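Researcher: Structure prediction, please.
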Amino acid sequence: MKKSTTKLIAAKRIAVAVAAVCATMSMPAFAADDIKGLMDLLLKKGVITQQEYDSNIKAAEDAAENRAFKEKRLDSDVAKLNKMAEKSADAGSVMKNGIGMQSADGKNTIQLMGRLHMDYRQYSSTFASGSSADAYQNVLEIRRARLGVKGQIQKDFKYEIQGTYGGNGTTEGLGETATILDIAFVDYSLNPALQFRFGKFKMPYSLEQLTSSNNIDFMERSMANQVEGEIVPAKESGAMVFGSPVSGLTYGLALSRGRGNKTVSEDHPDMIGRVTANVAELIGTKDLVTHIGLGYSKGDIGAMTPGSKGTEARGATIFTASSALGTDTTRTRTGLEGALAYGPFKLQGESFDTKYENASLASSKSIKIYYGEVLWNLTGEDHNYSNSAGTFGWIKPKQAFTNQGGLGAWQVGLRYTKLDATDFVATATTTNKANAMTYGVNWILNDNLRFMLNYVDTKFSTPVGTANSNARTGEKAVMLRTQVWF
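Model: Predicted structure follows.
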């Protein structure tokens, strides 16, 4: 009997020990309900007392609570570490969208930027009667070479500084000096609808001019943009307020120092402004771009000779007035712009009217230029339109060209341009009326490389050049560009 009692007590102690271990160990095989079920069974069989039951249940509950607390604390610590890692992941590193660095909080950045456009142009002429000498020289040149930086300071202030290295005239490589400063400005943004810009920058005027030279549809802009700052305001020093009150609507209003046409008596700035709307975006149609815009500029200029110098192939000087305008001339420039883009197709056009008025003129005189173009992305890419800037950007290929395959993006385009300066008498070697047809093929290999092939056929209403020597009624050019940018 004694021996049996001893065995019973030993078994009881073993059962209690097993139950205690199960209750206190953090083993995933034993859930709280499993432990309670075991304790209930031992109590029912009389193996353990009520006191032992209560003690082990309390121990199991405490152990479960401790495990839950530790797991919650561990999850919190891991989440904090992940958040810190994500926040500082780009600190001092190469930026995702280019070569640059940024601070740990992302508020301060600096990014390197640059572009290189290498061109070849081969000319031929349509000679006037009695002429035979070809004055054209085929050209292999660096059209643009720019390097600069852009970024932001404390998120609200943005800056950009670019230098241009190379010739800056119509005829390249003939003893010209380099232009170092191209663009330098600082932006301050209260919000997308109200921003300020100070420095040297592109004035708010013309869809074609505001489209980056990296993104223009043809190798050269239209005749209106062959003399920067005359028919179309371009990179000038000044101040501007601009913004996008709602997606698809933009405005810009600037005061500009102008470009070399100011004197003591005309020392006040030009007023330049632009408003645009993407009507499709405003009415909620996302797969269509219907861009309309209006540009306006007015200011007084000193004595100058109106002209639209280079052709769209950067060849002949098309038009120069036979006499200069007097001082105190008021120059008023108006530009209308429109574009329609749907999928891979785009139609775009602009009309420019530059009017000159002064006391010595019997009436105002104007130079009118307009162009229209059509572009088709053969490989199906959409046209990249910015609803906050009212401009078109880079075409991103659906399949970048690599040695493993991929076609890149292919485009074909056609542009017609007409110049009408018949209010002026042209010099003996230029004309006051001309038109040009440009045919283009573009191959965009990836996000940084593009090849462009253009054929430009320009016709003059009267011969251009020296009579009985190199006078010609037309100019033809085949042009090729290799473009790299980052």
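Model: The radius of gyration is 37 Å.
Researcher: Thanks, that helps.
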